[in-house]
Amino acid sequence: RRDCGDIYRVVKRCCMRLPMIKRFENEALSKSMPVLTVCTMMGTVYVSFVCVYMPAVGLGVLSATSLVFHTSLSLAACAYHQSVVTEPGMIPDEWRGEQVDGRPLGVPQVQQGYQPVETKRKTGTWRYCRKE
Fold it and tell me: What is the superkingdom listed in this entry's lineage (predicted)?
């Protein structure tokens, strides 16, 4: 017979292998709040549709509307999961253009001069993304 401690250890061992758990393993709780918010919103939409709308309209579980909804929500959940757990990588060096007049290539000249959204603290050069 297993006690609660054994069950807890088994569940913990299984959950620690999940990509979503690994993604936020050593992060502050505040980093996972956007994910929890989106999951709560998707859960609210699901419960509202299944527990309120479907019975009110008289839809069956295997109706076309229900199947389209469940398929769409499942695909959205899978896409969101992949977007959270996939590391975006780095900007390839060959994509970084030379600067012209202190601004990167492709940035139009404006009347007041171009103000970067962000520059690197150490070198003062343009920051293209947080991965630099």
Answer: Eukaryota
